[in-house]
Amino acid sequence: MIVNPLRVSDGARNELESSLVVCFSGRSRDATVIIEQQTAGIVDHSTIAAMDRLKAEAVEMKNALLAGDIPAMARILDTSWQAKKATASGISTDRIEHLYDVAFANGALAGKVSGAGGGGFVMFIVHPEDRLGLIDALNAASGSAGPVKFAERGCETWQVPR
Fold it and tell me: pTM of this prediction?
């Protein structure tokens, strides 16, 4: 696999990092069922159209990031979430929709479930000044939310000794 790093300006990178919140929905999911629904739905032209939209929106999101246009990224992410939900019935759940309602009531501009959906993590874009309030609201709604910090070397984890 060839990876071409994006040349994102420091300002755009900092603004995006300050605009992101991730929230664990409190539920894991079995991606197999959702992927099977998507595969079965390939014969349905609306599923293919939704997947084509997802692909096109990924390119649009990259271009918005390179331009440093975080509000455009939020608009694209919002339409991408709608397209993703159209690919299979189990992608969103009552719990995920509740977290979305809480997030949008507390300043979120857009959000999308990571992975196959049905549970797991949800990422939200918010104005940086509203990020802490959004985190508090999601945590009060029994989510497990926190800020995002980009790492140069990939995913990093650590544990604080007790």
Answer: 0.81
Q: Please say whether the dihedral angle defined by the alpha carbons of residues 105, 117, 115 and 160, taken in this order, is positive or negative.
A: positive
First to last CA, the chain: 40
Distance CA 76, CA 157 (A): 29
Task: Return all residues near 88 (Cβ < 8 A) that are at least 6 apart.
Answer: 34, 35, 37, 38, 41, 47, 117
pLDDT of residue 33: 56
Reduce the DSSP state of residue 10 to 3 states and report it.
helix
Angle at 59 between CA 5 and CA 68, to 5 degrees: 65
Neighbours of 158 (CB within 10 A): 4
Handedness of CA 134, 137, 141, 143 (dihedral sign): positive
Q: Which residue ranges form the domains of the chain, and what is each CATH number? A: 19-147 (3.30.70.890)
- Nearest Cα neighbor of 99 from 22, 154, 14, 7 is 22
The one-letter code for the residue type at 81 is: W
The pLDDT, as a whole number, for residue 31 is 54
The answer, yes or no, to whether residue 48 has pLDDT greater than 90, is: no
DSSP H/E element including 142: none
